[in-house]
Amino acid sequence: MLQHVLDLAADVEVARVVVVLGTDANELRARCTWRDEWLVFNREPELGLSSSVRLGLSALAASHAERVVVLLGDQPFLSPDQLKVILASPGQIVVPRFGGKPGNPVVLDRSVWPLASKLDGDRGFSQIFSAFPNLVTYVEVPGTNPDIDTTTDLDAVSRA
Q: For 134-143, how does the pLDDT look when each residue is reduced to its tens digit (9 = 90+)?
């Protein structure tokens, strides 16, 4: 699944790709085809998605990046066309809606990166959306983008 996301970032020409890896870092490094991605290692993945987001943004802090798209490694059905719609949308926090339901990936303007320090646990950006609704721009994206957390999730989507 991660390979799909790496290829997707390359397909849409994301300028700088930071990949945050956890306890399975060695296996993923061996199994994926890497380009010029920056690899960051999360030594405490048990702290949840928020810890990985903070590490990724910290890695980009010294760059000249004005926006970041937070791609999750467990979204093997996100298409280049869907990602292009999300990336083309203006706003401080851009949240895609698939079938009216908010999802990922989220785009963050540099001005809101400090809000990532407020993230906690494994709930992701929904914490920011509810606390700062005036910063959020929702964009309708055609199709679906199911989140695949388990092999059961993958089996269910594959059968559909």
A: 999 999 999 9
